[in-house]
Amino acid sequence: MAQNSGDGKGGGIDSAIHIVDEAVRVEKFFPMTNAAASEKIYRLDGLEMLQVEDQAETEGLSIIGVMHSHTHTTAYPSPTDVADAARFDPFGTMHFIIVSLKHPEPQLRSYRIRSGKIFEEEVRLC
Ligand SMILES: [Zn+2]
After folding, report:
1. What would be the CATH architecture of the domain defined by 63-126?
2. What is the pTM of this model?
């Protein structure tokens, strides 16, 4: 069943999805504990996330994304990553950066994930 976007134009929920290509600059990285204590999955601790958000706000920054690594697979969102994104970021506003350590040279890629769909975005390292 399609869901009306409510904008009077009709159409399904997909028609309401629009990724705006806007350049963002990452100013700072806040390392966090993997609360899952696993090499295969990661989980952010809610209290630690609040502390990081407070620290960022104090510094005049906004949290715009989450980065994690794939130690043995490519830098592409896994089904678990897509499911987690739906819970963590239901409106698809965050940038999900994945670093793959599968090959000798690390590979870094970034994605937006909305309604279960994966959109890769360009990353420039400066
Ligand atoms: Zn992943």
Report:
1. 3-Layer(aba) Sandwich (3.40)
2. 0.78
